[in-house]
Structures are given as structure tokens and as C-alpha cells.
């Protein structure tokens, strides 16, 4: 019985060994599965060369084109006027901005004018006797002399004899002394040189003003200028009078400006040139930041693509028979996000969007609206 059991076990082992060996041979000869090729869907565009305008973006803040910093040239107490001297106060041209107490100085001016009058009156008898031909001229001058008005100009001297006589009496010297005092008296009052608004007030009514002290700032809020710096390569292209598109930083408002001035020198440190853009709008305020788009020039027979589509060796990917290839391109101008290229033939199919991991020889499938529609139905 024992021998029969051992025999059966031996037969089973032989059969199992045979089946295992057969399986190993079958697995060895079995072909490996072929990995399916992955074909990426890409966005493409067909090249059509055209005229590409070069637009230079630049940013800057607005400053009033007409701007006056107010400084005191005399000393005295600030007297109240018809309007409070406060920031935001508007004035018309010719209105008094600041009036400094000049009562003491005014008295000295009147004294000098009186001395001049007396000097001329003292020579009138001599003129009547020795210079009868010019007596009436000087008599008319005295008759028109008013101490409460600006000193009139001395009569014109027509002969050397008259000149020597009048000058020798010190009348000409006295006259110019009076005019000098009157000029200084006018500085006790500051008037608005144009209609505008006070943007800064550093003194208040009743305070003592000192010579050379800054009093405030006055601007014309109707015209502003924006200073921007651009590359020196466009120095000979930008022209005065060209229209410029302006927007605020939020891109919610747009304005139109004009190139008013172009600096004649280039900044040695930054190699840029300064351009001034004039803009008028009631919604603008001094200090606002705006972005300008300056039309510099136009490139003939060129295309504009995203900067990330241009490779480091100045090549771009093209699609030929569903396979990626590379061709050389000549970059002309770079902006923040775009690049202008030349030497790309018309009809060339290029990538419209960058493909991660792209390489020459890569199989691709152009994206179409029909494919997208079928995929959405599925």
C-alpha cells in the first residue's frame, strides 16, 4: 500500500514539473506589449506676415504743466484775504493769494516819493528862467504826480544841457531809488499768475512770514504732463505732436495725450531718453499714475507671437505633417509678453501656445473645434 501511494505522488510530481516547465517556455516566447503612442493636441496658427506697429508701454505720474512754488521775498505778518489760504482753495488769475502787512514799508516808500517830488519842485524856478523851452514838460510831470499811485516815468531829456542839469540835482538817482522801493513793495502781495488751485499751504493767517520761507504750491489743474523714460533706440523715432493712448493702472479709464517734448540728451546711467506727454481731462489729478502706449514705428513683413514660443537659440516650433520641427526666426522687438519676428514664411503652421516638453520630431494633433465638440458629446 505504501509503495502505491509513493508511486502516485511521484507521478503527480512529474506531471506538475512538466506543466511548470511548459508554462515557463510559453512565457519566455510571449511577445511584450507595445506601448501606445501618445499624440498631444496642440493649438496652431498659420503665418500671415503683415505690418506690425511697435507700441512702447511706459508708466509715470502726472504733474501740473503750470506749477508755482510760492516763496516769501519779504518779512511781515500774514494778513487775511478774501479767501482762506488752505489747500484745495481755487483762485482766479489776478486774485490775491497772500498779503503781508506792509504798513511800515509803505510809509518809507511814500517818504521817498515825497522827496522826489520836492526835488523836482525845487528846480522849477531855475527851469523857468534858464530852460524855458523844457519848463512846461516838467511842470506837466509835477501836475500828474500822485503820491497814492505808481511814480510816473521821468520826462525824456532831449539835450545834454538838460540831462546834466537834471542829473546834477540828484533827481534821476532819487527817481530810481523810488522805483526800487515800489518794486519791493509789490512783493508784499502775491497774486495768482493763472487760474488754478492751491495744493499746499504751509502758513496760516496771522503767522509771521520770513524772507525766503516757502508758503505753498499753486497749480493749474486743467493741463498735466507725464514724464516717461524709454529706450534710447527710439530716440530718433518719437516725434513731438504724436498721439498717445493712456490708461490708469486698473485699466478702467482711458485718456488721449500728446507728446509735448522729447529730451535731447540720453541718461548715461540708464541709457534711456525722457519723453513728456501732455494730457487734459477733468477727471485727472496731480500725482496719478498712468500707463502710456507710445506708437514708435512699424515693422513691415513681420508677425507677433508670445515670447515663450521663441526658443533660446532664436528658433520656433512649426508643424509639418503632424510632426514638430524647428525653424530659425529673427526677433526685432521684445515687449513684456510679445515678440515681433521676421523671416518666417507665409503659410507656415506654427504653435499658438507653448507645449510642455516639446521637441523636434514629436507627434502632435492640431486642435479643432470639431474635435472639442465630439469630446464634449462623449
From TrEMBL:
Transmembrane parts of this sequence:
none
Q: Which GO terms describe its cellular component?
A: efflux pump complex
A Pfam family cross-referenced in the UniProt record is BSH_RND
| Segments forming domain Multidrug resistance protein MdtA-like barrel-sandwich hybrid | 68-215
Top-rank lineage group of the source organism? Bacteria
A single Gene Ontology molecular function, please? efflux transmembrane transporter activity
InterPro entries linked = MdtA-like_BSH
Checking PANTHER family in the record gives:
HLYD FAMILY OF SECRETION PROTEINS (PTHR30469:SF15), MULTIDRUG RESISTANCE PROTEIN MDTA (PTHR30469)
Annotated protein name in UniProt: Multidrug efflux pump subunit AcrA (Membrane-fusion protein)
Amino acid at each position: 500500500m505504501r509503495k502505491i501511494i509513493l508511486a502516485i505522488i511521484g507521478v503527480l510530481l512529474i506531471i506538475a514539473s512538466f506543466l511548470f516547465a511548459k508554462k515557463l517556455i510559453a512565457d519566455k516566447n510571449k511577445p511584450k506589449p507595445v506601448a501606445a503612442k501618445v499624440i498631444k493636441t496642440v493649438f496652431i496658427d498659420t503665418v500671415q506676415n503683415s505690418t506690425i506697429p511697435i507700441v512702447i508701454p511706459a508708466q509715470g505720474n502726472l504733474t501740473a504743466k503750470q506749477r508755482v512754488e510760492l516763496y516769501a521775498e519779504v518779512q511781515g505778518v500774514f494778513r487775511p484775504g478774501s479767501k482762506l489760504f488752505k489747500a484745495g482753495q481755487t483762485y482766479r488769475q489776478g486774485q490775491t493769494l497772500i498779503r503781508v502787512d506792509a504798513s511800515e514799508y509803505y510809509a518809507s516808500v511814500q517818504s521817498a516819493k515825497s522827496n522826489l517830488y520836492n526835488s523836482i519842485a525845487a528846480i522849477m524856478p531855475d527851469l523857468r528862467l534858464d530852460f524855458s523851452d523844457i519848463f512846461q514838460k516838467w511842470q506837466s510831470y509835477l501836475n500828474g504826480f500822485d503820491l497814492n499811485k505808481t511814480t510816473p516815468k521821468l520826462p525824456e531829456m532831449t539835450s545834454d544841457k538838460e540831462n546834466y542839469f537834471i542829473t546834477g540835482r540828484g533827481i534821476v538817482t532819487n527817481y530810481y531809488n523810488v522805483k526800487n522801493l515800489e518794486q519791493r513793495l509789490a512783493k508784499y502781495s502775491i497774486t495768482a499768475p493763472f487760474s488754478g488751485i492751491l495744493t499746499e499751504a504751509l502758513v496760516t493767517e496771522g503767522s509771521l512770514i520770513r524772507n525766503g520761507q516757502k508758503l505753498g504750491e499753486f497749480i493749474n489743474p486743467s493741463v498735466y504732463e507725464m514724464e516717461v523714460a524709454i529706450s534710447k533706440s527710439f530716440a530718433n523715432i518719437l516725434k513731438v505732436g504724436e498721439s498717445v493712448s493712456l490708461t490708469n493702472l486698473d485699466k478702467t479709464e482711458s485718456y488721449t495725450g500728446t507728446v509735448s517734448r522729447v529730451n535731447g540728451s540720453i541718461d548715461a546711467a540708464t541709457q534711456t531718453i525722457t519723453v513728456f506727454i501732455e494730457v487734459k481731462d477733468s477727471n485727472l489729478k496731480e500725482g496719478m499714475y498712468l500707463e502710456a502706449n507710445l506708437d514708435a514705428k512699424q515693422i513691415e513683413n513681420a508677425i507677433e507671437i508670445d515670447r515663450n514660443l521663441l526658443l533660446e537659440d532664436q528658433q520656433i516650433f512649426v508643424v509639418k505633417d503632424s510632426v514638430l520641427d524647428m525653424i530659425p526666426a529673427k526677433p526685432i522687438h521684445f515687449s513684456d509678453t510679445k515678440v515681433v519676428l521676421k523671416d518666417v514664411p507665409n503659410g507656415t503652421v506654427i504653435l499658438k501656445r507653448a507645449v510642455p516638453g516639446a521637441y523636434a520630431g514629436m507627434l502632435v494633433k492640431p486642435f479643432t473645434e470639431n474635435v472639442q465638440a465630439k469630446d464634449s458629446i462623449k
